[in-house]
Amino acid sequence: MDRQSAVNAYNEWIEQVKLKIPSNQLLIHNAKDGWLPLCTFLELPDDQCPHHRGESYPHVNDTIEINRKISIARIVTRWFDFVLGLLLGLVIAIIFTHIIPLKKQLRRSVDKEE
């Protein structure tokens, strides 16, 4: 799905919701508006509304934070195959340099005792 198709689907969904949900039961909230519209919609008393207590609205999904997470995900995915291959190579090297010779040595010891 391309960007424009996704935007169109999102906007269509919003319109369907607006048609089906009574306006007194629906709040179309923009996080940039902060706490006040949300508190008003929920009919919270002033002492329970974070806006009236001076609390700022959380911005955990701001552009800077999202871009930082995307950068980390790109780094992890870029290096994952390399690190996995390296670890697999180390395991194989350990098997061939330590475990197989040790197994052969144990077999020889058992054969000598018989």
What do you see in this structure?
Helices cover 67% and strands 0% of the residues. The chain contains 3 helices and no strands. The chain has helices spanning 3-20, 35-41, 63-113. The mean pLDDT is 88.
Rg from Cα: 30 Å
Please count the beta strands (DSSP E, at least 2 residues each): 0
Query: What would you call the shape?
Result: elongated
**Count of distinct structural domains:** 2
**Oligomeric state of the chains in view:** single chain
The biggest beta sheet, please? Answer: none
Structural class: mainly alpha
Supply the number of helical segments: 3
Q: Helical content, roughly?
A: 55-70%
CA distance, first residue to last residue: 71 Å
Task: Determine the strand fraction and express it as a percent band.
Answer: under 5%
Order of helices and strands: HHH
